[in-house]
Amino acid sequence: MKSIKILMAIVLLLSPFLSNAEIKNVSTENVKIAGSCALCKEGIETAAFEKNTSKASWDKDSKMALVTYDSKKTSIDAVLKKVALAGYDNDRFLAPDDAYAKLADCCKYERAVKKQAVAEKKMTEHQHGAMADTQKNAAADTDPLKPVLDAYYAVKDALVSSDGNTASTNATNLVKAIKAVKMDQLASEQHMVWMKVMKDLDFDADHISETKDVGHQRDHFSSLSDNMYKLIKSGKPSEAVYYQHCPMAKEGKGANWLSQVPAIKNPYYGAQMLNCGKTTETIK
């Protein structure tokens, strides 16, 4: 019995270190997050958690949270933005009114009214991808996903030409563009969609880059396009995006793609059926 107690004590002592083991490039910050009860603790820590990327430990008495995150995958702003969107005011962002209203009655805390105007302004600026003091660069910053979309178009154009070598090279550039996206520049809705599709986008782009087989590339391009549509649809692209459909692709099941031009140039068949398909939606 004594040896079991000693073992349990050792596990408890080591648990903080073990919990950090999955997060690499560790950065930690102590931040104040508003809340009032144990249910708030669960909500805050759930919002901050992303496997192998970020987590938080919140104390309801001091209202302080120790935020631990991988500095190469995310930022303290990105983590606290998710916490605010879950309904909890913090040092960096004020929760939107509708998010705060959805909290359980026991979680309703006294809000920092004096800071509300400044915090709401900052939250809005982040949601639209540009801060007030960088308005000179607004044209370039309003669409942080444009490099990803441009790299996607390059892959699409190579498949239209049935050029597996160029598609592979362009997919490598797409992988780089995906990894370079700064999540804290995304508007709130697009940020949430990005978190859901990011890994799948990277998976498909990586598979296209690893082969010169056009058939295999087209298989992954289909699912890549589905997730790109969800992502672009969730925001407002800087230029019109044409969502197009080929009914013959995937053995008659049909497949979609995004295009920068309204004219149909089929990436699933190339010259064999270049003009097969139609535009089903224009996103702008």
UniProtKB/TrEMBL annotation:
InterPro entries (alphabetical): DUF3347, HMA_dom_sf
Signal peptide: 1-21
One Gene Ontology MF term: metal ion binding
UniProt KW keywords: Signal
UniProt key word Signal: yes
Domain DUF3347: 148-238
Phylogenetic placement of the source organism: Bacteria, Pseudomonadati, Bacteroidota, Cytophagia, Cytophagales
Pfam families linked: DUF3347
Entry keyword annotation includes Signal: yes
Protein name as it appears in the record: DUF3347 domain-containing protein
